[in-house]
Design brief:
The chain has 409 residues and is mostly helical. It is built from nine helices and three strands; from the N terminus they run H-H-H-H-H-H-H-H-H-E-E-E.
Length: 409
């Protein structure tokens, strides 16, 4: 009896040693997956920051382009006003020239009228008795006297009226000429102001265009950063896939080894318990999943955790793919080769990379979506999609049943 106990203890120790070596390898792969997942998350965050920077820079660029459009409109308006002022100045110049001509004509008329008066006065003095009185006194009759007096008065009145008229005309033309020159001066001043404003707008346009070019350079640099992060993420995800494949192979080998050791242990135990010479026909009839599996609970905490894990692993899959992932967790709980609670299976080291990277905790904190919660609830209630204990990416090359982006085995 003592020898049997010693053999059993030695066999158990050997089994534990082999399983420990498998666990050590699995732990190393799990650590690599954990670190890779964290690096991917960090790169995703940096990529999001870079994308946000690109978005902000594009908004700033759009704002600058809007300012540039406004400045271009303003420049067009100022240029139009300058052209209009130039036309008005040219028009004033023409008016000034016209009034100058009118003034010259009026002055000439005034000079001609004065010359006419001089000639009449000279004629009277040269051909008369020397003064108007003699003309009047030389009248033959009172009627002739009155006629002559009226003629002289009419002649004087006409001369005075013509002189006053020409003088008024000259004053009005001078006034108009002065006014036109003042208006021309004001238009020239306005033109100078518009030209200065045009230069200011041109300066703002040049400055804004420089700012836009600088933003375009920043956007290009930020977009290159995004592309760089995308390239790094793609490489890290490829490496993560390789680790997942390695993890799946290790898990499969570990499960096969555990199954074989369990069968051998049971066979040895049966042989040791039988009397000498008894038949060994029952050898090799061990349970493929082991014994002692846990009972599945359906508490709110288990449902929340299972739904969160399903979203992390299969959130982008259809409902059936989410249901299959939830079923794997429940199959593990029911198996004797894994922890016998939902939380124990989820938090078992080196099994689920989202748990190691922290993504699981984030989803658990905010709550999983309705589809993943529905899939988790179905599995917890015993409605399972197959009896698989493992899954990994379909691209890992592991043999099994492919559903969506995963292979189950």
């Amino acid at each position: 009896m003592r020898k049997k106990n010693v053999k059993k203890a030695a066999f158990a120790a050997l089994t534990l040693l082999l399983l420990s070596s498998w666990d050590a390898s699995a732990s190393q792969t799990g650590d690599q997956l954990k670190n890779t997942g964290k690096k991917i998350d960090e790169l995703e965050e940096r990529k999001e920051d870079a994308e946000a920077k690109v978005g902000n820079l594009k908004e700033q660029q759009n704002g600058l382009e809007g300012e540039l459009a406004g400045l271009n409109r303003q420049l067009s308006e100022v240029s139009g006003q300058i052209n209009e002022l130039e036309a008005q100045i040219e028009e004033k110049k023409g008016q000034i020239e016209t009034t100058g001509g009118e003034l010259s004509e009026a002055k000439e008329s005034l000079a001609a009228q004065r010359e006419s008066m001089k000639r009449r006065i000279q004629y009277i003095y040269e051909n008369g008795s020397g003064d108007l009185a003699s003309i009047l006194l030389g009248s033959e009759s009172m009627a002739d006297f009155l006629n002559r007096a009226e003629y002289v008065e009419e002649l004087n009145r006409y001369d005075r009226q013509m002189l006053e008229c020409f003088q008024n005309t000259c004053r009005q033309i001078k006034k108009k000429q002065k006014q036109l020159k003042q208006e021309q001066k004001e238009l020239v001043a306005m033109q100078g102001s518009m030209e200065q404003k045009k230069e200011e707008v041109n300066g703002l346009i040049a400055k804004t265009q420089t700012s836009i070019e600088a933003k375009q350079t920043e956007i290009s640099a930020a977009q290159e950063a995004v592309s760089g992060y995308e390239e790094q993420i793609a490489k890290m995800k490829a490496y993560e896939e390789e680790l997942e494949r390695k993890k799946a192979q290790e898990a499969k080998q570990r499960a096969q080894e555990a199954k074989r050791k369990a069968q051998e242990a049971k066979q040895k135990e049966q042989q040791a318990s039988q009397p000498s010479g008894a038949s060994g026909s029952q050898a090799g009839s061990g349970d493929s999943q082991g014994s002692g599996g846990g009972s599945v609970t359906s508490g709110a905490g288990d449902l929340a955790m299972l739904a969160a894990l399903v979203e992390c692993e299969a959130g982008g899959e259809g409902y059936e793919g989410q249901w299959a992932v939830a079923s794997v967790v429940i199959n593990r709980v029911k198996s004797g080769s894994f922890p016998n609670t939902v939380s124990g299976v989820i938090y078992q080291g080196g099994q689920f990379s989202p748990v190691a990277s922290g993504r699981f905790a984030m989803v658990l904190a905010r709550g999983a979506g309705s589809s993943c919660t529905k899939a988790a609830s179905a599995a917890l209630s015993g409605n399972l999609w197959g009896s698989y204990l493992y899954f990994c990416r379909a691209s890992s090359g592991v043999d099994g049943t492919v559903l969506g982006n995963h292979v189950f085995y």
